[in-house]
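Batch job 17 of 40 flagged for manual review because the log was empty.
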Amino acid sequence: FSVGVESVLVVCAGLSVVLGVMLSMRRGVSWPGAVLSALVLLSFPPVLWKQTQFTSLAIYLPAMLGALLAAERRRWLVFFVAFLVAVTSRQSAIAWLALPAWMAVREYLCRRNEAERRWRLVLPEIVTVVAGLGVYLAIGWAMNETYAQRVMTGAMWSSLDPVQFVRGTGFAVVVFCLAAGCGAFFRRCLAARNTVTGTGDVSDADV
């Protein structure tokens, strides 16, 4: 049993590295920089600690990276499979459906001159969102209620302080913006270095 558990963790970590490298290379980062980026992500202390344990995060992380890659390539069947794997282990994956939803809205608004075709163009994204919501509801109905859902959820809503909620949300937004900005700066530095040295090409995602 222990060999099987360790094997699953190793395979999931390897998939996370490969998918992280692919995502970085699509943004014009050369493969050494892409490997470095993936290793930095996976060696971040909380992520590394959770990956060494047999928890749902070991499966959740490669599924999330695979879903991002599939969404960029508009391969919604692959996205849905990755979403299905993740949402059955961590229900917070429901937030991933914002990707196809946003891409459907953006595509629909950008095709104003093609009124007859734009609904057909966004149909795959709409089907993905509807199917994902259906799976989420079915899982919530079929799975046993956990201790956290039975005890902690009710207590959390009863003690919710709107002021603290706004402060916490604002702090989270600030942290996210700082992290996203640092990540974008790091990626652009790597991409700019590759452009100067001629070791990498800018992908379609950056055009």
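Reviewer: the log was empty due to a logging misconfiguration, but the result itself is present. The mean pLDDT is 80. Unflagging and moving on to job 18.
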